[in-house]
């Protein structure tokens, strides 16, 4: 097992709102439309390249969400699915991969910092051997941080 942890992200929304939004993955459907908006593209300028933004938008279009499952098409491996396997109200949401070339578990931890904000940390445990680890180590380190950044920017009250 290889463990990848994001840095701690500060979220300007109450812990209960963040948990409620993330514990039902259908709530993220509206993000596809918001991320495609010109306002979002303007706000992302300087943080990510135009090419990265276009690639993210392409992946978002292939994103399928149910209450418990998130599935995204990832070339060249095909569909990758994560299923919520445990919810600890207002604190933790745990996921496990269902369709993935690398078996993994992921969890989101939330802690309140005040009545109106919280902090978040994302952790991924991936079952990788030493040979594979050399190939996936950097992408997983970057990926866990990018996912955490994206989750921290969601307007949870909307």
Major sheet characteristics: 8 strands, antiparallel
The amount of beta strand, in percent, is 25-35%
| Overall residue-averaged pLDDT value | 86
* Straight-line N-to-C gap: 37 Å
Total beta strand runs: 8
SS content category: alpha+beta
Task: Return the CATH class.
Answer: Alpha Beta
CATH architecture: 2-Layer Sandwich
Outline of the structure:
The chain is built from five helices and eight strands, in the order ββααααββββββα. The chain is of the alpha+beta class.
Q: What does it look like?
A:
The protein is built from five helices and eight strands, in the order ββααααββββββα. The chain is an alpha+beta fold and 158 residues long. It has a single domain, classed as Alpha-D-Glucose-1,6-Bisphosphate, Chain A, domain 4. Strand 6 and strand 7 form a beta hairpin. It is globular.
């Amino acid at each position: 097992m290889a463990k990848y942890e994001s840095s701690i992200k500060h979220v300007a929304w109450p812990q209960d709102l963040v948990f409620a939004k993330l514990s039902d993955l259908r709530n993220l459907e509206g993000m596809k439309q918001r991320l495609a908006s010109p306002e979002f593209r303007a706000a992302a300028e300087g943080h990510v390249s135009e090419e990265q933004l276009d690639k993210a938008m392409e992946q978002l279009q292939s994103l399928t969400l149910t209450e418990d499952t998130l599935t995204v098409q990832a070339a060249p491996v095909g569909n990758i699915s994560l299923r919520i396997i445990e919810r600890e109200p207002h604190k933790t949401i745990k996921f496990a991969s269902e369709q993935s070339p690398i078996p993994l578990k992921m969890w989101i931890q939330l802690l309140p910092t005040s009545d109106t904000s919280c902090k978040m940390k994302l952790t991924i445990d991936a079952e990788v051997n030493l040979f594979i680890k050399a190939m996936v180590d950097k992408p997983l380190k970057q990926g866990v941080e990018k996912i955490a950044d994206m989750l921290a920017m969601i307007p949870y009250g909307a």
